[in-house]
Write a structure and sequence with these properties.
single chain, alpha+beta, Muramoyl-pentapeptide Carboxypeptidase, domain 2, 4-stranded antiparallel β-sheet, two-stranded parallel ribbon, 17 helices, elongated
Length: 336
């Protein structure tokens, strides 16, 4: 009789032992969550049996969850975009030392997801994250004139012409108009000329006489200009101040060089008019295309006399963001 009682007691106790699933459900885990947790190691299951762990559960339920990385997910939780953080942790490249670099990179308004691999490749090769973004977005990680593409003419007034984007040799705008001799010389696209006339009139009221010294140039003319410089300087030097044929903004009919009577282009920076132009040209839809402090991005020496038409909204946005048009195009026009 005693043996029977002992056996009955043992069976009774065993029957009272709750399964892991039952315990998890009592803690508030759903059927789906319970099933997921049961696939984990015993040690990790025990963690969830202690209490309802919302934060850890979130990561466990993700399709890209890797069990051995859970503590890293929790360590960096909230410090980066979650999806990006999990991706970096899974790749094994996120650490406390480099975390600030990733925060700056993914927090930048100039970050382009399609170029992420390049950012990561060069992230530690330059002084700042901003430098990396500038170099990658403007293709300056490549040699100049390497991998040249034809510019997207569908962008209208927002086309980009530089050392990586070129115009067809036969390209000529169909709306060119001649500049009034009283305002300078050359031809410009009609809308550009109208904007320039407004700029000229207001500058005149301020006491500045900004005359157009150079405007539209055909592919052939630019070819002659470039080759002429090659008779004076080595090619690597010429490339810092003159565009190769097909790569000149002048061929677009959207840019012009200005100066005041008595001053050459090289002397224009000495005038008060150059200061006024820099501070005000965006109000008329223009930007200084090649700023003095952005030669590493544009690939050209500073040219305070050359202005490029983009329209008031875009020109103002470029100026307010403090970037070159090369950068702006990649982030807000091309977006690839």
């Amino acid at each position: 009789m005693r043996i029977i009682l002992v056996l009955l007691l043992c069976f009774g106790l065993c029957g009272c032992q709750k399964s892991t699933a039952d315990q998890l459900k009592e803690l508030g885990y759903s059927e789906e969550e319970t099933a997921c947790i049961e696939t984990l190691s015993e040690a990790l299951q025990e963690r969830f049996l202690q209490e309802y762990d919302t934060k850890a559960l979130y990561y466990v339920m993700r399709e890209d969850f890797e069990e051995e990385k859970l503590e890293d997910y929790l360590r960096y939780d909230g410090k980066l975009d979650t999806d990006k953080m999990v991706e970096l942790v899974n790749k094994g490249i996120l650490n406390e030392t480099d975390l600030p670099l990733y925060q700056q990179l993914y927090g930048s308004e100039f970050y382009l997801p399609s170029r992420e691999d390049l950012y990561l490749k060069y992230l530690k090769e330059y002084d700042t994250v901003r430098d990396v973004i500038e170099i990658v977005n403007t293709n300056r990680y490549r040699e100049l004139y390497e991998g040249v593409e034809e510019t997207d003419l569908s962008k209208g007034y927002l086309i980009l012409v530089n050392k990586y984007y070129q115009l067809p040799s036969d390209y000529e705008p169909d709306d060119l108009v001649s500049v009034d001799p009283a305002l300078g010389r050359g031809k410009l696209r009609n809308e550009v000329y109208e904007a320039y006339k407004r700029l000229y009139a207001d500058a005149k009221e301020e006491g500045y006489d900004l005359k157009v010294l150079s405007a539209y140039r055909s592919y052939g003319v630019q070819n002659a200009v470039y080759n002429g410089y090659l008779e004076i300087d080595p090619k690597e030097v010429v490339d810092t101040y003159s565009a190769r044929p097909g790569h000149s903004e002048h061929q677009s009919g959207l840019c012009l060089d200005v100066s005041e009577p008595g001053y050459s282009l090289d002397d224009f920076y000495l005038t008060e008019a150059s200061v006024w132009l820099k501070e005000n040209c965006h109000k008329y839809g223009f930007i200084i295309r090649y700023p003095e402090d952005k030669t590493g991005i544009t690939g050209y020496q500073g040219e305070p006399w050359q202005i490029r038409y983009l329209g008031v909204k875009t020109a103002t946005d470029v100026v307010e963001k403090g970037i070159t048009y090369d950068e702006y195009y990649a982030c807000f026009v091309e977006k690839r």
